[in-house]
TrEMBL record:
Belongs to the peptidase C56 family. Residues 4-184 form the DJ-1/PfpI domain. GO terms for biological process: proteolysis. This is Protease. InterPro entries: C56_PfpI-like, Class_I_gatase-like, DJ-1/PfpI.
Amino acid sequence: MAKKKILMLVGDYAEDYETMVPFQALQMLGYSVDAVCPDKSKGDYIMTAIHDFDGAQTYSEKPGHRFVLNADFAATRAEDYDALLIPGGRAPEYLRLNPRVIELVQEFDAARKPIAAVCHGPQLLAAAGVLKGRTCSAYPACAPEVRLSGGHYADIGIDQAHVDGHLVTAPAWPAHPQWLAKFVDILEQK
């Protein structure tokens, strides 16, 4: 049996844990994970940011790592993948301005392929118009976008994940154990 392929959409200042941990954990489980970024190629890197919850009214941001891309965005086609993964951080706020990114999200959704989005990742789901009538978790600051796009915001614990059909969403990186486990469960059912 061929191993399943996952597309990971990233960009500069994607959240470090939400990029590095799923990328490595899913590979450890035997999946092929292609990390791509618009206007960048295989071998280029993005800068990540570490978001932490250290007592302020919102998360703090610290420099992360250089995350090397292993595939070319320009050659990306949804039909070549079994699932889509969208990390959070600041990247989704500007990635949603790229028409091809929006098309990719819509193509994965139309094909009912598993989509995992965490933290600010659901900003791409909202911008792509795929949340109408669906329930989605996200970082709490993204709740208005989920609602304005016609979705229902799942106000769950920061270490929890929510499933609605083929969508698996979570508020932030503390949810990795649940979020990734639920994503893998859905991916293995396909």
